[in-house]
Fold this sequence. Notes:
alpha+beta, single chain, four-stranded antiparallel sheet
Amino acid sequence: MKNIKDNVIWLLPSIFILVILLMIGTCTPRINDKFLVEKVRRENLEIFEKMRGKAEAKDLIAIGIDIQMGIDEIYFKEGEKVRKGDVIIKFSDYKQTDVDNQMKDKKRILAAKKSQLRFLEEQYKHGMNVKNQLQQIKGEIKAIEDELGMIEKNDALIQRNIVSPIDGYIVKINVIKGGTGDKKIPLVLLAKTNNIKIVSDPVRLSGNEYVNIGNQAEIKSIAEKERKAPATLYKINDTGVKELKTLEFLMNTAIDFKLNEIFDIYLYYQKRENVLTVPVSSVVQKKKGNENKFFIYLINDEDRVTEKEIYLGVSNGKKIEIYGKDLKEGMEIIKNPNNRLQNNIIVRRRSLQEEKREKEEKMKKLKSENERKEKEIEKNKREIIILEKGEER
């Protein structure tokens, strides 16, 4: 009997500890809300402005002609790329034929006038009074020779084609097929491949004080997302509207972009290196006394939450720099906190797969609802048309 009593006495501390643990376990608050979990990361944080822009020519090369010419064929369109030696415009043959005929006519007339001159000179030698006639015929010959010289000069200027002198882009063509080139206006305007600039749409800069000549940017094609290249801000233009600017960028590398192609421009104007970051959505602002303070919610392996005060640095809209006591890379935090979270509460984790599935289900529901409403609207429109026709009768 005594042995049984002794054994019970020895078991009592263990039983007491077990009861205490069970009480703690059952008293720890829990909520069934599911939360996404993210890690505190150490990374470079780049602050940027996003804008749209297009490729334009920086410096132009004008090609024209000194005489009017008929346009027989145009082989390229504005904005297209050309290689050095490519034929851009072919002229009609009629101009050459016209010049040849003019030269033949003038030479025939000139030969007749010179024959007449020799006859008058013979008469003058034999004492005939033909001095005035000689002066007149010499003047006529001089005039014909001048005209013939002008025609020969124009003949030398006649080109069969306009050929690109560079690798580049066609900015403007000022003629049409079947028309005539105007010697006062350049027929073609070209830009060298490396003279392409990216010009932004008018933009109001939120970080205006940080935007300076020399800031780096990344240019991404709208048509082909994988085509991107670094660029440098080299010019800031006023638009006439307060705080509204257009920005001009030069490409840092030779990338094959098309003239007038549309781009997304990411202008970087601030960079923080090797800092701790969290998603902006994970930060909660609370009023403590007279101060606004910021917090994140740490979560441990047992899914227990701890409220942690932090201080904020720069943000790019998605990520934000944080610093504070005992913060470390790799700490797990609640990405989508709500006002039910508090210290020592136990929560459930939510997977990215669950979030994706819920988004898909919500999208499916919204699309179905939209289709139902569209059918209802169409039905109402048909009824309105029927009623309106009934009133007309």
